[in-house]
Amino acid sequence: MYILYADDAGNTGTDYDNGQQPIFSLAGIIVDTDKWFALNEYITTRKNKILPEFASCEIHATEIYNGQNNKDKGYNFRKNTLAENLDILEQLVDLIVELKLPVLMFVVRKCNLKNYCQSKFGMGIKIDPYLIAFPYISLSFDYYIKNKSSNGMIFLDEQNALVNRIEDMLERLRLIEPADNKIRIDRIIERALFLESAKSNFIQLADICNFYINRYLSIKLGVAPTELKKKHIEKMYKKIEPLILKPIPNPEELREMLAFFDDNVELLDKK
Known about the structure:
Elements: E1 2-9, E2 23-32, H1 36-50, H2 61-65, E3 69-70, E4 75-76, H3 82-99, E5 103-109, H4 110-121, H5 129-147, E6 152-157, H6 163-174, E7 193-195, H7 201-220, H8 227-240, H9 255-263, H10 265-268
């Protein structure tokens, strides 16, 4: 069996006009459960070597990247130089590359979603990008495990405000008729489970992957960090990029998903 551990980045809810966060991304790593214990132990060992002073702290790429200090969470990256913090992040990226964990991702350009809402609903309905990305990444994962003749589960970083709608959406994707519909999910078992990222090495690695996916694509849309950070982001993304799986089927050709959104608009509407 396989587990998809996924995390989000650029999450501003239905604020589509945030110039510093023009995209929402949902990305995750796929873990073979037969290798879970060995991988988890190895990740813990490597984390302790990379971050010996903060071995027990939760890894969040943004907090390291921005040099934050949080005594309650047990870390102080403010004492480091920027170069030192970027080196920590590069070591964590190298760990992901070393483990060769497949990466799934789906990106929503917020301006496109805003235009969709305006043209479809006259902005009477505003959709959280998470609820667009989740069914697409779930479907890609379902195709992946189907090709492996296996089953899988999805573990997500906590999303308290969206839990019920995410669970309902996954269940409705399972019930789609006919059985050979391109977007019917039949290999993902159970509901999506929500984890505290502090207690999951794999969610933390998903956070690292998604941080660079989101920042790299944001640069392409005109968000300009300092030159040092820009070069670092581009370098890290290029390391991760070979692990990113091409989505199956192509989202741009998947009219069935748009029909699914039309049929389930009450799940998408911001409450």
